[in-house]
């Protein structure tokens, strides 16, 4: 269950990052409130996952899902550039996440 909590926490991190962008520096009320709720849920699930997963593994996976997820949302939803260097960086992050998972007991 800890891995499921961690994955959902990572997806929620992507969602709160996107809603934070939509809040325009916390100047728009609805996206700001949505960001705070998503942050709280993401942190709660991360904390739950950390009850059984090692700190380094859980935090690395959580931030990696958030980083790559935000990168994908930025490209697909916000029209951010997807050049070769950025794509390679995302592949390297994903490779690190896979290695982190494989190294966990």
From TrEMBL:
Q: Where in the cell is it found?
A: Cell membrane
- What highest taxon heads this organism's lineage? Bacteria
Against InterPro entries, the record matches this protein to: EmrE-like, Small_drug/metabolite_transptr, Small_multidrug_res
Asked whether the keyword NADP is assigned, the reply is no
Q: How does this protein lie in the membrane?
A: Multi-pass membrane protein
| Keyword terms | Cell membrane, Membrane, Transmembrane, Transmembrane helix, Transport
Q: Name one Pfam family in it.
A: Multi_Drug_Res
Membrane-crossing ranges are 27-47, 59-78, 84-102
Which family does the record claim for this protein?
Answer: Belongs to the drug/metabolite transporter (DMT) superfamily. Small multidrug resistance (SMR) (TC 2.A.7.1) family. Gdx/SugE subfamily.
Q: What is this protein called?
A: Guanidinium exporter
Q: Which organism is it from?
A: Stutzerimonas azotifigens
């Amino acid at each position: 269950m800890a891995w499921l909590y961690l994955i959902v926490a990572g997806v929620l991190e992507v969602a709160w990052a996107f809603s934070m962008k939509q809040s325009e520096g916390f100047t728009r009320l609805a996206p700001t409130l949505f960001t705070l709720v998503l942050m709280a849920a993401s942190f709660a699930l991360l904390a739950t996952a950390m009850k059984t997963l090692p700190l380094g593994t859980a935090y690395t996976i959580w931030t990696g899902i958030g980083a790559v997820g935000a990168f994908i949302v930025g490209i697909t939803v916000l029209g951010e550039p997807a050049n070769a260097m950025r794509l390679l960086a995302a592949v390297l992050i994903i490779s690190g996440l896979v290695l982190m998972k494989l190294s966990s007991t």
